[in-house]
Amino acid sequence: MLAETICSAASVAGLGIAALTAYRRRFLAATRIAAYALVPAGLVMTGVVRWATEVVFEPVVWAGFGVLGLAWLLFATTRLVERRGLGRAAKPAKPVKGAPARDAVAPAASEPSLGAGTAARPQSAGRQRPQAAAGDDFSDIEAILKKHGI
After folding, report:
1. Do residues 139 and 113 touch, judged by C-beta distance below 8 A?
2. pLDDT by residue (tens digit) across 25-35?
3. Which of 71, 81, 121, 123 has minimal Cβ neighbours within 10 Å of its Cβ?
């Protein structure tokens, strides 16, 4: 009740100031002041002021805002942890069915096709493999294609 009275008084005072401004022949400014003065009266008439005072003075409403804040904090924390990668366990990647394994090598593959990630067969100390010629590079590809039936 008190809030509605204060808003109504503010509207009446604003309309009085608008009337004085219009008397001085500043009609544009007077219209703008009248518009601002009518806002509190409109808020009282629509019930927004009553709703706002009920929200401000009700402890259950403040507890609800606290619960919403806690929920937001939990969402933000989980997103931060997920971005930093702290929530992920070190699990090996699952192989996709139908896709060749990463370590799959053709039976007659040369040493360069084994790659640095896999352990190559140890060579004997006295024997070294000669470097592959330019024509031998395609033999690895041919072996892989034959293995897959292509």
Report:
1. no
2. 999 999 999 99
3. 121
